[in-house]
């Protein structure tokens, strides 16, 4: 049996979710007649303080729908250079809608560089440039190790955007993790943005699905975009039922994942060859790198060797970028699993050290 720390996407639905899925009342959602989906959408809107919500199959589709709905062909979308939208979503609005992405630097805490952001904003007065229609944030931030943007940071970007007539979309795949880390309601954290996508299928443990929330008019148009992308499902209440359980029963336990991630971080910090900034571990994601006895950072091939050795010792981890390794805690990973993972990682490191 592996201790799987590759991602919180490996979570399995809980018994309560399976029961709810079995008993779900369903209808045709393209007609707006699936009562379970309607209930989930109302719940998501209420929790986030937005007017309406839309159930979508995946987070990537949710982000694409938001971009295509906010920005038209030839209108620019500003994203961070470390964002999930930029790195892992196949070009999104640029590929599908002809909206160029303008990339600005991301700080280690996940915040967009404000000076670069100001400089990136373009309007229609210059016929040579694509006017900016949308700025995308990410909270919590995956490639920055699960870091969290505060209310003040979100508000600063939203104020700049709205002053210039630009919409703001938040990739909030793990927004409930971010809110848990800050100790505030999700609705407060997303108050200043125009739309938010969040996943049901990561830390919240549902098997499938994400939510897109925003104004009623935005969701009306987003529903059409979802249809365009093939995301209009029929009796999908069997999936939405698990999402309702996720929002009603799985949010409060996210703090346990954060505690286990912190436990893992401090355990890794005690191991030779490991470099980790424990003070940056605030949610359920951590990043660490490896180095040899001379302090030289491991390259891609050496990291691949370590990951294989860790697997042999029962621990699944994943690469993140060129030099970092990512670990993600989630439902099903308990404190004892963290201790077992640390023992497996230590054994893998010892084997590698003997090979050098």
Automatic annotation (TrEMBL):
GO terms for biological process: glycine biosynthetic process; L-threonine catabolic process. One of its GO terms (molecular function) is L-allo-threonine aldolase activity. Residues 4-286 form the Aromatic amino acid beta-eliminating lyase/threonine aldolase domain. InterPro entries: ArAA_b-elim_lyase/Thr_aldolase, Low_specificity_L-TA-like, PyrdxlP-dep_Trfase, PyrdxlP-dep_Trfase_major, PyrdxlP-dep_Trfase_small. Its cofactor is pyridoxal 5'-phosphate. Keywords: Lyase, Pyridoxal phosphate. The keyword Nuclease does not apply. The modification N6-(pyridoxal phosphate)lysine is found at residue 202. Belongs to the threonine aldolase family. This is Threonine aldolase. It comes from Dictyobacter alpinus. The lineage of its organism: Bacteria, Bacillati, Chloroflexota, Ktedonobacteria, Ktedonobacterales.
């Amino acid at each position: 049996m592996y201790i799987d720390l590759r991602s919180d996407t490996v979570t399995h639905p809980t018994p309560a979710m399976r029961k709810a899925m079995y008993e779900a009342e369903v209808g045709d959602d393209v007609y707006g007649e699936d009562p379970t989906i309607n209930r989930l959408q109302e719940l998501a809107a209420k929790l986030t303080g937005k007017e309406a919500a839309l159930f979508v199959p995946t987070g990537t589709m949710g982000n694409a729908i938001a971009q295509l709905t906010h920005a038209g062909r030839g209108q620019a979308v500003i994203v961070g250079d470390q964002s999930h939208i930029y790195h892992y979503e196949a070009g999104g609005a640029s590929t599908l809608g002809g909206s160029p992405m303008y990339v600005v630097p991301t700080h280690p805490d996940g915040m967009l560089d404000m000076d670069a952001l100001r400089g990136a904003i373009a309007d229609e007065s210059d016929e040579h440039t694509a006017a900016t229609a949308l700025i995308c944030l990410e909270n919590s931030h995956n490639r920055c190790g699960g870091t969290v943007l505060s209310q003040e940071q979100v508000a600063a970007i939203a104020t700049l955007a709205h002053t210039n007539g630009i919409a703001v979309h938040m990739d909030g795949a793990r927004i409930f993790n971010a809110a848990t880390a800050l100790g505030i309601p999700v609705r407060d954290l997303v108050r200043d943005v125009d739309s938010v996508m969040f996943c049901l299928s990561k830390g919240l443990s549902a098997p499938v699905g994400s939510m897109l929330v925003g104004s009623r008019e935005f969701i009306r148009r987003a529903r059409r975009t979802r249809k365009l992308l093939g995301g209009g499902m029929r009796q999908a209440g069997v999936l939405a039922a698990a999402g309702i359980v996720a929002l009603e029963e799985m949010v409060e336990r996210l703090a346990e994942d954060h505690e286990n991630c912190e436990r893992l971080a401090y355990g890794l910090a005690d191991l030779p060859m490991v470099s980790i900034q424990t003070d940056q571990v605030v949610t359920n994601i951590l990043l660490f790198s490896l180095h040899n006895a001379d302090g030289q950072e491991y390259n891609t091939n050496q990291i691949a060797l370590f990951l294989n050795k860790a697997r042999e010792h029962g621990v699944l981890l994943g690469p993140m970028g060129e030099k970092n390794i990512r670990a993600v805690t989630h439902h099903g990973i308990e404190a004892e699993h963290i201790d077992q993972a640390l023992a497996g990682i230590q054994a893998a490191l010892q084997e590698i050290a003997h090979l050098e």
